[in-house]
Design a protein that fits this description.
Layout lengths: L3 H12 L4 H8 L3 H14 L17 H13 L5 H8 L5 H11 L2 E4 L2 E4 L15
Antiparallel strand pairs: 1-2
Helix pairs in contact: 5-6
């Protein structure tokens, strides 16, 4: 990733008549990268990096997450398979479990889903009970 200051310097140097080969030697950046940066500037009019399509899209929308939370709160002994069938989901069971635990804050205890408690367990300090 080329810093924005360097991108602007490359653009200015190119506009002032420097050739791409000269820019490669000056900035010690591969020719392909410089060509890509200049192409990006021609197409968008900006040297800012485009971060709009970074990362994998979420498996569920916010509305689906809310629906899943409502279903689990209404029936806390529901199984992951039943959630999948009820919501007509195409994701795997383990993904549903991760969503419940990490995105919605549920824990699975004794055949039911419940919200995580804020109680912190006491831990052993240097091998002694406290």
């Amino acid at each position: 990733m080329v810093k924005i200051e360097i991108r602007k310097l490359i653009s200015d140097a190119y506009k002032n008549g420097k050739r791409i080969r000269e820019l490669v030697e000056i900035f010690q950046i591969p020719e392909r990268t410089i060509c890509g940066l200049l192409k990006h500037e021609r197409e968008t009019g900006s040297m800012e990096p485009s971060n709009q399509n970074c990362g994998r899209p979420p498996a569920l929308t916010n509305a689906e997450l809310e629906e899943m939370k409502k279903i689990v709160e209404e029936q806390n002994d529901i199984t992951l398979e039943e959630i999948k069938e009820k919501m007509h989901l195409s994701i795997c069971i383990s993904a549903i479990s991760r969503i419940l635990r990490f995105k919605l804050g549920f824990n699975y205890k004794k055949k039911r889903w419940s919200q995580r408690s804020e109680i912190v367990r006491k831990t052993r300090v240097s091998g002694k009970n406290s």
